[in-house]
Amino acid sequence: MFKFDFQVEADDTPFSIKEGFNDSKSPAAYADKESFKEWYESEEIKPSKEILENIDVCKLNALSKDYKGVSLCYMVSGFLLEDIKNNADDVTDLKKAEENHSDLIPAVYEGGAKIWECTEDLLMYFAENIPTLEWNDKYVLDLGCGSGLLGIYAFNNGSNVTFHDYNKDVLEKITIPNVLLNTREESDENEEDIYNFDKLVEKTRYFSGDWEKWCSSPICDQLYDVIVTSETIYNPENQQKLLNCLHTKLKADGKIYVAAKTYYFGVGGGLRQFEQLIEKDKRFTFKSLWLSTEGVNREIIELRKIN
């Protein structure tokens, strides 16, 4: 098993690292909300050329980070949330969450504006262990994509990527602009930056809504060579739904990479509990690829179908 200890320095990166969730999301409170909530329907989000009008603002509030020669450009989440909060005409799930100082509102907002710690773990693991050529022409699903960094890593290495997030707002205001930032073409120093919108349309797709409703919908019948997902197992009530989605969307010889904490304080989910569900489900094999024991334990596991 490969192991490295990667530490995120809060002062050097825009990552918003959370070791758990707010006190308001205690297991009892969370379970109480589970009993009556209604999950969003699935829909495809089509990128509009209107995002090109604001791309310079996105660029000014973006950072670039290099992963062993693979550069990712993405917006600083603090700027995004502040802008959404201050926009009086913007009534969105993102705004509701920010006004409530919450990282999670069950069935309303599922944390997509934050870049969670395990996403960085998985990016580092890919850069250290998977040759970039292995991503070329693969079909990749970034499930629970949020800012889309995992999918963008694959996209920048030649993959065709589907981005799925529960919230339409997240895809429109964060994911799609981030992907577009990574289509910038080389230009002379004094020339205006050019972004390849056609490449974005050709190589990526975007879907929102509930996992179960998406998998049962005819709007996307694509199967994937690789599925990547980070910090999506925190709610035990949704883990079977996640496992069903992974099985439905993965090719017979495909791989799934799951990055998560061993335990999520306040909501009850965790990796050991998820592994017990996998064993009971009997449709996947799994193995541990990487482990960090600093702070709350974090881990990366790989799943494959039992054919």
From TrEMBL:
Keyword Transit peptide: no
Record localization: Cytoplasm; Nucleus
Entry keywords, A to Z: Cytoplasm, Methyltransferase, Nucleus, S-adenosyl-L-methionine, Transferase
MF terms (GO), sorted A to Z: methyltransferase activity
GO terms (BP aspect): methylation
EC number: 2.1.1.85
Protein name: protein-histidine N-methyltransferase
Organism, as annotated: Musca domestica (House fly)
Underlying gene: LOC131800533
